[in-house]
Write a structure and sequence with these properties.
about 375 residues, alpha+beta, Aminopeptidase, eleven-stranded mixed sheet, four-stranded antiparallel sheet, 12 helices, 15 strands, about 40% helix, globular
């Protein structure tokens, strides 16, 4: 007999029990680790005060935690990266409340990964059933399960949820010995362009370092967060994540963290942050945030792509996830990959309208994937 509970504090589950459940799920990522999620909550970055009320749905049995959903009651749509602002506006125009809504995702983290986290298929099936029962009985407008694996999306689609397609850009390791061997796999014009961009950074007097784990100092974290704030300010936005959040990560899961640091004339000028794992399938590096205190031509490409790719090659990581947006990533050796999210909409009129919009969007994404694939940076013979 499984027990269903809603949990508002991960410490009630405990680090060991939560991370043991992740270890049983092949689609879990470092962003689902207790340390990462708890840091988001404890630092106040993802909390009721900021419109992210943790309401994790869990199933337990005689063996312990069997399944769980990282679930939030959201009072807005910020920090999700799968956009539904138009849906909120359409609800409002019909006199319907869109917020609060249910969200199954990792806050501020557009990395695909398990959302119906489970020990086995039976537990996942029961978890999905309980999740849908919860949202249907809650009187909230909707449920959004973002960037989940295909099998989990198919399970939710079979239960009546609408499916949304998207595009991200990932680099895949072809067993390269070093960065030069990776460049050799690219077409001549793309190879020439990357070399020219890296040369510009060197000629500007910039030196690059990659640091991981406990080798990242407190000063490094403070400088990185300064860069992170600058990036948001340049876009007229307020940063979601505090220095306290990153400092807590540095204490609790340093083995998953890396920083790229750029110096000129002995002073730091830019930084980029990544999270990595070395698990099944060869491991993955997730590029996250970047910023600079001064403009240097091509430094963004160097910090956010080329240093990350070099790190992945050094560590033998299978994938570098460059995230969403930016078709310019294709010219730098990243490939477009599809992503999937699932949505339950309570109001039948809105559900039909959103279903039609998603069907059109799916066609557009499919066409975009084909067009982007034709612009691949790799030699023609390699893509055949």
């Amino acid at each position: 007999m499984k027990r269903v509970r809603l949990i508002d504090d991960l410490s009630r589950i405990g680090r060991s029990a939560w991370n043991e459940l992740l270890a049983a799920d092949a689609d879990a990522t470092p962003f689902l680790r207790y340390e990462f999620l708890h840091a988001l909550h404890e630092s106040g970055c993802a909390s009721a005060r900021t419109g992210w009320t943790p309401t994790y749905l869990t199933l337990t049995d005689a063996q312990g935690l069997a399944a769980a959903v990282p679930l939030y009651r959201k009072d807005h749509s910020f920090g999700e990266y799968v956009f539904d602002w138009a849906w909120a506006q359409a609800h409002e125009e019909r006199g319907l409340a869109y917020y609060p809504k249910w969200l199954a995702a990792v806050p501020f983290t557009p990395a695909p990964g398990s959302r119906l986290i489970a020990r086995d298929a039976q537990a996942r099936s029961e978890l999905a059933r309980q999740l849908l029962a919860l949202v249907q009985d809650s009187n909230l407008s909707s449920l959004h399960v973002l960037l989940a694996p295909t099998a989990q999306i198919e399970m939710l689609a079979a239960a009546g949820l609408l499916v949304q397609a998207g595009v991200q850009f990932h680099w895949r390791n072809g067993g390269y010995r070093d960065f030069e061997q990776f460049l050799a796999a690219l077409s001549q014009d793309k190879r020439k362009k990357i070399r020219a961009e890296r040369r510009r950074v060197r000629e500007a007097g910039v030196e690059l370092q990659r640091r991981t784990g406990t080798a990242i100092t407190e000063d490094d974290w403070r400088f990185f967060h300064r860069c992170y704030r600058i990036t948001y300010a340049q876009h007229g936005s307020t940063p979601y994540l505090s220095l306290a959040f990153f400092q807590q990560l540095a204490r609790t899961m340093p083995e998953n963290l890396m920083l790229v640091l750029a110096h000129r004339d002995g002073a730091p000028v830019a930084s980029a942050f990544g999270v990595f794992d070395t698990g099944a399938g060869g491991g993955t590096l997730y590029g996250r945030y970047w910023g600079a205190t001064e403009f240097v031509s091509c430094l963004h490409f160097e910090c956010c792509y080329y240093q990350m790719i070099e790190f992945a090659i050094e560590r033998g990581l299978a994938v570098f996830e460059g995230g969403a947006q930016g078709a310019h990533k294709v010219a730098r050796g990243l490939d477009p990959v599809p992503t999937l999210s699932a949505h339950w909409i309570a109001d039948p009129v809105m559900r039909r309208a959103i279903a039609a919009a998603l069907a059109r969007q799916s066609h557009q994404v499919s066409r975009a994937l084909d067009e982007l694939a034709e612009r691949s940076a790799f030699k023609v013979e390699q893509s055949e």
